[in-house]
């Protein structure tokens, strides 16, 4: 697969699809492929689209694709769907809603199953983003599965996070409770033609005002705009795209884009280290007699878990590198 990276850089869709499948499913080549891809990453702008189920995220994403294509942008989409309990694969509802874009060579849409992840993102999502980045996408839209408070994970992947709320479902209050107000760079009040939309907008604006009063230097900080949209009627999409662009301009002119990406790389490195340690324990330590001995001593309470953990790490680090998943 590594020898096909030039084809990926040239925009070969079939190569992109094969590499994403490899990254999703794992295998001996995955780690080497990601190593080779990494120097070519960092060019795409990533927009997270999150919110509760039924808020119209997929329809809104579909309209954003159209808007970006009118601007001549190459667009990648990662739609994180619930995992089927029967097949283990993604339930491809998003592909159905976005099917009009499938013949467009400058749009690449991939559905991924959460596979047990509670954060609205599959573990491999960030790795798939790297493939689409190298593929040449100007923008990558990441639509999360919609699982309430765990949606906060999107902030570790996206440059701009759009939180989608709808009237009539108590979404604005739930967002405040869940801490989603903290991660939103742009609010989209979708289905704004329904009764109660004005109330949702007012509640968000009030909460933003209250937050501005309590934060030092709030006048210089970004205030998330609240955009009314009706995705099914293509209403408010240009305004939403303008809000995303304005946030990007703010990040770039203040230098915050580079700072935030640096912090995300730092967090990703920690996550990769933790993943390798887990693999090390699972593939090396748990297959030795020492694991059984340590476990028995903890069960007998002759060894405490903290000391046991130190011993396990010592054994794992002495045994060599973890196997690639």
TrEMBL record:
Gene Ontology MF: a single term: GTP binding
Pfam family, one: MeaB
Keywords: Chaperone, GTP-binding, Hydrolase, Nucleotide-binding
Keyword Nucleotide-binding: yes
Keyword Hydrolase listed: yes
Stored InterPro entries: GTPase/Isobutyryl-CoA_mutase, GTPase_ArgK, P-loop_NTPase
Family statement: Belongs to the SIMIBI class G3E GTPase family. ArgK/MeaB subfamily.
Name recorded for this polypeptide: Methylmalonyl Co-A mutase-associated GTPase MeaB
């Amino acid at each position: 697969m590594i020898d096909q990276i030039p084809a990926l850089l040239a925009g070969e869709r079939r190569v992109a699809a094969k590499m994403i499948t490899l990254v999703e499913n794992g295998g001996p080549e995955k780690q080497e492929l990601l190593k080779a891809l990494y120097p070519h990453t960092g060019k795409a702008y990533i927009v997270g689209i999150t919110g509760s189920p039924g808020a119209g995220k997929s329809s809104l994403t579909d309209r954003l694709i159209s808007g970006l294509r009118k601007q001549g942008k190459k667009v990648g989409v990662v739609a994180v769907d619930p995992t089927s309990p029967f097949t283990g694969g993604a339930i491809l509802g998003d592909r159905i809603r976005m099917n009009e874009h499938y013949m467009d060579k400058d749009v690449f849409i991939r559905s991924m199953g959460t596979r047990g992840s509670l954060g609205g993102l599959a573990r491999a999502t960030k790795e798939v983003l790297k493939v689409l980045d190298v593929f040449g996408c100007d923008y990558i839209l990441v639509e999360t599965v919609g699982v309430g408070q765990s949606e906060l994970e999107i902030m570790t992947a996206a440059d701009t996070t759009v939180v989608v709320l709808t009237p009539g479902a108590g979404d604005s209050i739930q967002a405040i409770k869940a801490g989603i107000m903290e991660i939103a760079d742009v609010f989209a009040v979708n289905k704004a033609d329904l009764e109660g939309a004005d109330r949702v907008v007012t509640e968000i604006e009030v909460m933003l005002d209250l937050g501005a009063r309590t934060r030092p230097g709030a006048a210089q900080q970004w205030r998330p705009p609240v955009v009314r949209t009706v995705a099914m009627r293509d209403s408010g999409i240009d305004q939403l795209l303008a809000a995303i662009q304005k946030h990007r301009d703010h990040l770039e002119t203040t230098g915050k884009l580079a700072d935030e990406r640096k912090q995300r790389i730092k967090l990703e490195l920690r996550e990769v280290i933790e993943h390798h340690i887990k693999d090390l324990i699972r593939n090396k330590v748990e297959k030795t007699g020492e694991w059984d001995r340590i476990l028995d001593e903890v069960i007998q309470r002759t060894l405490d878990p903290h000391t046991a953990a130190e011993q396990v790490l010592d054994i794992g680090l002495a045994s060599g590198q973890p196997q690639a998943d």
